[in-house]
Amino acid sequence: MVPLSWYLIFAAGLFSLGLFGVLARRNAVAILLGVELMLNAVNINLAAFWRYGTITNMAGQVFAIIVFAVAAAEVAVGLALVISVYRRHNTVVADEIDMLKW
Amino acid sequence: MTIAQIIFLVVAGATLGSAFMVVTSRNLIHAALWLVATLFGVAVQYALLNAGFLAVVQVVVYIGAIAILFIFAVMLTRKEIRDQGPQLNSSWWLSATLSVVTFGGLVGMLWGWKDMAHTVPDIPPGFDSISALGDALVSPDAFVLPFEVASILLLAALVGAVYVAFNRK
Amino acid sequence: MHNEWLYVAFFFVVGLIIPVGAIGVALILGPKKPNPVKQETYECGLETVGDSWVQFKAQYYIFALVFLIFDVETVFLFPWAVKLGQLGLFAVVEGIIFITILVVGLVYTWRKGMLEWA
Amino acid sequence: MNFWTDPLKMAADWLTGLLTGWGMPEGVAVGLAAFLGIFVLIAILMVIDIFLVWLERKVVARFQDRIGPNRLGPFGLIQPFADIVKLLIKEDITPANADKVVYNLAPILSMMSVLILWAIVPLAPQILGIDLNVAALYIIATGAIGTLSIIMAGWSSNNKFALLGAFRQVAVMVSFEIPMVASLLIPTVLAGSMGMNKIIEAQNIWFVVLSPLGALIFMIAAIAELGRSPFDMGEAESELISGYNVEYSGMKFGMFYAGELLHAFTFGGFWGILFFGGYSFFGLEDVSPFLAIPILLTKAVIGYWIIMWVKYTMMRIRIDHMLAFNWKFLTPLSFVLLMVTALVHVLFKDTSPWLYGLSMLGSNLILGWVVIEFLRRFSRAEREKLEGHAKPAMEAAGH
Amino acid sequence: MTTETLIWLIPLPPALAFFLIVLFTNKSKALSHSVGVGAAILSFLGSMVVFFRAVSVEHLGEHPFESSIPWMPTGDTWFNIGVLIDPLGAAVLFFVSITIFMIFLYSVGYHNFGQPAGDHDRKGLPPHGATVEEHGHKHVVPSVEPMYSRFFAFLGLFAFGMYTLVVSDNLLTMFVGWEIMGLCSYLLIGFWYGKPSARAAAIKAFMTTRIGDVFMLLGIGLLYSVAGTLNFREIFGNEELMHTLAVPGATLFGLSLAGLIALLLFIGTVGKSAQWPLHVWLPDAMEGPTPVSAMIHAATMVSAGVHAVIRMFPLLSLDHNTMGVVAFIGTFTAIFAATIAVAQNDIKRVLAYSTISQLGFMIAALGIGAYVAAAFHLITHAFFKALLFLGSGSVIHGMEHGVLHTGNHSVDPQDMFNMGGLRNKMPITFWTFVIGGFALSGFPLITAGFWSKDEILADAWGHGHLVVFLTLALAAFMTAFYTMRQITLTFLGEPRTKEAEHAQETPWTMTVPLMVLSIFAVGYGWVGIPEDFPVLGGLVPNWFHDFVGHTLHEVPEAVEFSWAPLLTSLGVALGGLFLGWFYYRNVNSAKEDFFQIALLKNKYYFDEAYDFVFVKPAIWLSEVFTYQWMDKGAIDGFLHIFGPTTGGIGGFIRNYIDLPVINKFIGDGSADVVQWVGRSLRPIQSGRIQQYMMLSLVVLVVIGGALLYFLLGL
């Protein structure tokens, strides 16, 4: 069978790719895409630990579902913000969205 | 190497490849579609982990809703789709370094961890994960509070998103 | 390895093979005489004017948004529905609270006039 | 056990035996046998699909007071095969501006999203398909892939009308997915499981009796999900030329077309499974799979026929009306129904079946009556408001 | 109802009141204050029942009221939260419930309930008065606060936080209450958000206390990682654990684990209780609605900080190094704040600094191990300081009345040099203020302040901490001095302005709390008279020491009676009072006041120093490092790094040292400074999330790497 470590390393890779997306993409929507990757990496870990831990303890799956809800909320609000910013400032480039400075 | 391992490696490779395309492709719709591929790969991983519910939910929520929402959002903020300018910001190399360091750090930490080679326990016969999940979510001595709080979170997200994006003032 | 998802994967594979095969056969059998006019965008014979990336109504996004929230909600409801029979009245009350909270969100959106197409 | 009572098992055993006889490891042999079985199933489905084309054309012709295909073969039965040949030898055109990969992937995904639905269809008590414990959600998940294929088709065609059609279609599909999920939750609640097989087994009383409103909502949502009239905004011929698949031709269009028909048929089947007892029909299903499968297919065809009936009777609804109908009526109604069902189920499930069934049915009927009454009053008020405004103008015109 | 159930219920009414007011009743002023005051009464009654039941239990220290429920799953175990009322909790609950009730009642009068709406009042600004026509001629009367309901909502939330903090049995929920109060203090200080100074003060208070809170959270985390629980009794009752914690030199700087944890928690208290060096926020907090928020901050919330340290005393006392730090900070703050208080003219600022100084007394007492004395002073101080603040609020209210009468808004109703002779105008306020002031000064024998302060001095003497003793004695002397200065300038002599002549006594909702509190300001001292005090000792049993002392496992010994500290405290109190009266009876304006020394008046230039040490480097970092380097330097490569850097430094010197520093060092008003701080801090926020994330990630990687390298030896 697949050892636990494979899943964890896979998740770490996904997380790092997401991190790169979050840090390096200019487009705010693309940044949110990166965030999704990171959240998924976390979820893989949760599912893997559920499977490799005490299988009757559903905490891992419950947490993963909660993460789904959080991801949905994050996307909903995040994209709404991006659209709102786009309507006001006509840009979705993260570097140009720095109104919170003042 | 067993079949499961081969499947895992193939799927993981495809998933990571798609994820790489997500963060690098210039066309945002393509990035979103690559995200779908990545998410589907993750769903397959859940299925490999016998977490069928998570796999299906992954498809329903992520591919069916979140990816759609992303595509809609890209269409609505469309000025940038065909942006010929760079899609990565100027300090992307620093980000890349940081990501690699993060990955290295995570793997490094995992390396020294004694439970790494943990073998997978058998699923006890008659164990129904959906039923157990239902128990965990709604029975009062488990996660009933997070269950209810999740609905409040979703409510807040809905109200907030609707208000933020489309306040007609 | 006993994992019923393997068979689901077979379905996916076969479900891919058959349309791919059909289109592939058509590709082989069909003639290939492309010309620029044939490959133009079809708009009832009119010349295409402007970019196809027209601005879309934000309303589409609203519906997708509301859908996303409710979709996640229903995901929570499935384990609840499965276990409802055993857990009894307490679980029902929980579920009703859960749904009611979400319906409040729908009502809010409604009242804000966001569900109107105009 | 013989071929009459369990043909699938026999076939599988024979095939596995054959393969292991050739020196194949046991596991691989089982897998290969399953794969072949699935292949055969899907091939049969494709054949059924071809006949669905004929059926659809015949039915629509009758609805429109025509005869329909009648030239090739008896009752025009050969006609669909001629269509296939035509599709196969048509030129494959990819528009120059299209996004090639996505454009070609979309019809494949569209077809696939339908075919994989059959993974969870229990054909007979002995032929359960894959008995997933998340089957109800699986239906929604395949729907998600279908939605994706439409948006991919619309976007990659690089055509205003295609994109607009895709947007409309997706908006409708995602909107009606909520009542669909809610109505899927009702059999789940009643059966205490998401598994299709458990749902069928639990139907000592057909769920349509226990929850007629749920069945109705599921049907409406399914029609919207299929994008068939009156919910065919996505391909509104007169406005959007053909919607999201305008740029498709030949076999790729064929995939969308066949996918839609098979999808409709499949949903007819699921309607039968979820609310009409699936393969079961007064114990006949236990005699032989050769009886059970036709029972299920008959139910599916009946469901499919209702979908066609609606399609060829109703006019297309404007998209704003359609979305308003969903969000302001169907979604709240389905959630209220879900709450009521859950409550009644828990309160009465341990009483006698008669009381349970009657209270379920009663609660559904009362809810339906309340809703209709409410709608009647509301629309009358609306009408009076409108006419009240219109009247003076008319009077002025009259004088 | 069992006592435990009742304890659970105590924090609830204010929280419900908050939500009720916010969600439903905010349109109606009368309904809102009924809900608020009603909730306060419910909590008050509940607290009293709990208190009296607690007092009647024989060995409450060993068998406190406690009850807990599982809250969060932590792997295979659960994190429990619950309530605990031990003797200390009961004593604190007693004064907290009374003061909170009084705050609610007083707010009704303070915000001019029943008066007409102002002529041109706006939300976010203090009411300016309304013109009414009576008997044919117009005159101006105070107008009702426009955001009256909001105020009661905030008060409710605040009360919820305070009660939660007092009744919780573990550090985490205590911290939750602590943070709720932090939020409320921010909201209440910035209540009149229309005033820039109030906004700045609110931010300052929030940020300053946040510094302490971060350390406190670190301490909590460390404690949890070591002990695996945050329940007070589980930690203190586990002898093995306590031994592990007490091993000296286990962590940095030769501190034991207990010492480090206690130190971190103590830093939280330093922020919350406004101890040096994080005291800067408290005086500015007086920007809030005059007496009420001042009182929250001065009498109730800051006590929470001391309460926390007293709670953690068993941990604190394990390491004498930490004890030394605590004693030093307390003593230093006591004398340091007292000297500043002497030079302040604003009636509330004097009290604010006096509070800082008195809190220093308590902290110092804890630092020398005088557990009971600290708790005792905490409670007596809460009573008389609440009394003084409410009194000062009453004075200001009276003065505002005078201001409205004359219409001369240039007269500051809070400046003591504008007052004088108010004893005839506002007799109740005067007498209660005198009682409070005398209690603060430690007027011998009859006031509560005397007994508690005397006990601290006696402990310092008895335990041989001579330096602490002398410093505290000096601080006590100055306390008496500035208190009498305040009383003399405010109430005695002749009115120095027209406005003072027209000052008026305040309504009953304001004076009743004053009277109630003055009873406690006198009477509460009697429960803690040492047994062997000459003549009086033994007349009343030293109930307080006996009761609260049993919170600890080993009941602390009462120090032996000694004449030296008694005579000292007699001397400093009476001497200070006399000198204050003697000197200030003839002073009529700020110019004649010898103590208007620039150094004291400007609070030792602490605000300015913080600018220089923290704010400037932050700007430098943002300008040169974040902006120039991260954003530009990084792209162009290291070749160009020198250009931007030198440019940045040049610009920095020109823009940030030349003009502002010189100006600001001469400038006075701390409000200006705070505003400037806020403005200058902004450049560190480039507004670009990705930069923030990258920076935090870099820091995380560096810290993580360092931790791995040094701690795990990887």
Would you spell out the secondary-structure blueprint of this structure?
The complex is a heteropentamer of chains A (102), B (169), C (118), D (399) and E (714).
Chain A: H1 4-24, H2 28-52, H3 59-89
Helix pairs in contact in A: 1-2, 2-3
Chain C: H1 5-29, H2 58-87, H3 89-111
Helix pairs in contact in C: 2-3
Chain D: H1 7-21, H2 26-63, H3 79-89, H4 100-115, H5 135-156, H6 160-191, H7 196-201, H8 207-210, H9 212-226, H10 237-240, H11 250-275, H12 289-313, H13 319-348, H14 353-398
Helix pairs in contact in D: 1-2, 2-3, 2-11, 2-12, 4-5, 4-11, 5-6, 6-9, 6-13, 9-11, 11-12, 13-14
Which features would summarize this protein structure in a list?
heteropentamer; B: 169 residues; mainly alpha; Four Helix Bundle (Hemerythrin (Met), subunit A); 0% strand; D: 399 residues; 2 domains; 73% helix; globular
Explain the overall architecture:
Chain A has helices at 4-24, 28-52, 59-89. With 102 residues, chain A is mainly α. The longest helix of chain A has 31 residues, at 59-89. Chain A is elongated and about 50 Å long. The mean pLDDT of chain A is 85. The radius of gyration of chain B is 20 Å and the shape is globular. By secondary structure, chain B is mainly α. Among the domains of chain B are: 1-78, NADH-ubiquinone/plastoquinone oxidoreductase chain 6, subunit NuoJ (Four Helix Bundle (Hemerythrin (Met), subunit A), Up-down Bundle), CATH 1.20.120.1200; 131-169. The longest helix of chain B has 25 residues, at 52-76. Chain C is an all-alpha fold and 118 residues long. Chain C has a single domain (5-111), classed as Methane Monooxygenase Hydroxylase, Chain G, domain 1 (Up-down Bundle). In chain C, helix 2 packs antiparallel against helix 3. The N and C termini of chain C lie far apart (55 Å). Chain D has 14 helices and no strands. Chain D folds into two domains: 1-89, no CATH class; 93-317, no CATH class. The mean pLDDT of chain D is 84. Classes of the chains: A mainly alpha (102), B mainly alpha (169), C mainly alpha (118), D mainly alpha (399), E mainly alpha (714). At the A-B interface, helix 1, helix 2 and helix 3 of A face helix 1, helix 2, helix 3, helix 4 and helix 5 of B.
